[in-house]
Amino acid sequence: MKNGEKYTRFHKVEKNVSKNLIIVHYFICARKSFFSFRFSVLFFCFFAKIIIHQLLKKNIPNKTAPKEEIIRTLSSSIEGAKQLVENNPQYIFLWENLVNLLLKHNQIANAMNVLFQSLLLHSNSETLTRILTRLLHDYKLPPLKKEFVPILISLCENKYVGNREISSAIVTAIKQLPEFSVIYRAVLQSLPINFSVEYFQSFFKNDLCITALPRIVMRDEEGERVFTYIRRNILFQRFEDSFTHEKLSVPYSFLCALARQDFYNEYVFDVREEESGMVDILFNKLNSVLKDAPEEILLWEKDFALVALYKPLSSFQNAHRLMDQDIMQWSEPFRKIIQEQIISAIIEKYCEKKIETLALLENETSKAVQQQYEENPYPQWISISKPEQIPFEQWLKKFFPSKKNLFVSKPAPILIAGCGTGAHPIKTSMRFPDTEITAIDFSKASLLYALRKTEEYEIRNITYVQGDILSLSQLNKKFFLIESSGVLHHLRSAIEGWKILTELLEENGVMKIGLYSESARRDVREARKFLETENFSQTESTIRKARQQIFNLPNEHPAKEILLSSDFYSISSCRDLLFHVEENTFTIPKLVETMRELHLHFLGFELDAKLRTGFFNMFPEKESLTDLYKWKLFEAKHPKAFSAMYKFWCRKK
After folding, report:
1. What's the CATH fold of domain 356-515?
2. Residue 625: phi, psi to the nearest 5?
3. Is residue 296 left, alpha or beta, with left meaning phi > 0 and alpha meaning psi from -120 to 50?
4. Which pairs count as long-range contacts for 70-79, CB under 8 Å and 24+ apart, including other chains?
5. Buried b (16+ CB within 10 A) or exposed e, 18-38
6. In DSSP terms, which residues pair with 462 in a beta bridge?
7. Please, are residues 306 and 333 in contact by the beta-carbon 8 Å criterion?
8. Is residue 225 a contact partner of residue 270, using CB atoms and an 8 Å limit?
């Protein structure tokens, strides 16, 4: 056994080792007159070996591992940390230590690979999963080893891993498949298609594809082109002469997975005129079946699935008759479509009575914004990353160490002003389950979506209210924590809305605000300028056409930069991005001026790892983090730094 391994194993024992050794030591000291010094040492080692041996025989679980003692002995070098992990792979915190060292040395790809490796051993670790999810969101996925693919699949299936956070990594992994490259070349060259060839069949049966398609939006130009091409040719095959469903060369599980992808992205893929005609033929036929021959519905399952590639099942006039059948009579892949497109709507209808209502103000801007989100609730989401659960007071001390003697009312009242479809308040509830959360939005469709997901996650401490931020004074309540992200800039007067929120904040409370950065929205302005020349409306069909025109622009056109935005790849998010009825942007000087006017003190931006590192490279002093003048200089040099909005904390002065 190596000396390092012996040393590490020594530190695995429970805390009472030291107590036992002290007893032996006193015994030796008491007998000094009878034993030589040499024999005393041998005697001490003999008993120490027995005690350590007995303790190491125990199967010590992670929760009782001598974490504090081992951490004190951790090597500050990457090699030392690797050795500790190699010798003690059962301890999660050692893997975490190695990852932190790799990140400290900017070895992002190595850190990701270590996390994948750790999850092969600790698949249920929330800590390791949380770290990997964060890295997959912040950085590009390196070439994925084959043995790590099951980990990515399990992340995709995990309801406590945010699908939006890992979507970029999933898309990258799919594009790394050799079959994808072959298919994409065929798309670019408009080659005749034959789904029965090996590379297509291998792609259709790929576990990652089948798992990911229903759970992440294909937020990528190349990926969208490939799946649009596949969908179109599936439909064409259906209308070939002498077609039978048995001749369909696409596995049914893949077809249903693609239909769920289309539902999730709200049918954003391009639809040609000939496709539209074919879909109408199938749609009308199935409408007749639902109306006149409901006993035959089960026989038409695969055609219902084909229509679901282009339209939601709820668009049928008698869609409720799909539920007249015992759901177990449908095939397993199609049952999931029924669940998402029919049953979910029924659940939302049932949730309607749980929404409280404030009197809505007669404000034309608010009415227009409300109408947009009634038609297209935003954002659509499947799963959410579970944050670390932490007592509210402890979180405050960790996040705001300079705020001394904070008094927090029990339970701490929290307001989410502009909660959308619920991801924000649900995540807040997971972090602080003992708080009272009020979540407000003026879109009933968004609130129903939020309530359905709240029921799904078994959350019980959120009250949903339909109302305008400008009418929040009707609540007659103060809040210790107020969060409003991506909302105020859609009001007629963002400052007026912000002032109302400030009035609702307790004197020692804290507030998180999210506002669009003027410099980071240049690509949006360029895309809108291009679309204004074409006079596009806000209907789903014109949004699809507008997107295709941007796709077809030359690469050097300034509007084409918008393809890098993840919000470009679904109907509701694209409408929010490019066709919003009201939008205001901010600069850092404007933030300074507004906070001065509202008597607010800036506490700092919420930063991801890349942005924090970039800022410290320019301004290494820690106190610079709250210096808005330095942030102005940084943004001037990095105009896209706040592409995800200015997200910052403030409090009353």
Report:
1. Rossmann fold (3.40.50)
2. -60, -25
3. alpha
4. 70/8, 70/11, 70/12, 70/94, 71/97, 73/7, 73/8, 73/11, 76/101, 77/101, 78/102, 78/105, 78/107
5. eebeeebeeebeeeeeeeeee
6. 437
7. no
8. no
Residue 418 · residue 469 · CB < 8 Å: yes
Q: In this structure, are residues 196 and 206 in contact, taking their beta carbons and an 8 Å threshold?
A: no
The string of pLDDT tens digits covering residues 63-103 is 444 455 555 556 678 988 998 899 899 999 999 999 999 99
Say how far apart CA 502 and CA 520 lie, in whole Å.
26
Q: Which of 245, 312, 376 is nearest to 322 (CA)?
A: 312
Give the Cα separation of 215 and 203 in Å (integer).
17
DSSP, residue by residue, 342-401: IIHHHHHHHHGGG-EEPPPP--HHHHHHHHHHHHS-S---S--PPPPP--HHHHHHHH-T
| Mean per-residue pLDDT, 202-220 | 96
Q: Which of 194, 246, 163, 269 is nearest to 548 (CA)?
A: 269
> Would you say the C-alpha torsion 246, 247, 251, 252 has a positive or negative sign?
negative
**What is the rounded average pLDDT for all residues in the chain?**
87
Question: What pLDDT, on a 0 to 100 scale, did the predictor assign at position 298?
Answer: 93
Segments making up each domain of the chain, as ranges = 3-171, 188-349, 356-515, 519-578, 588-652
Residue 418 near residue 450, CB atoms below 8 Å: no
Helix 221-238 and helix 163-175: axis angle, to 10°?
Answer: 80
Number of Cβ within 10 Å of residue 439's Cβ equals: 26
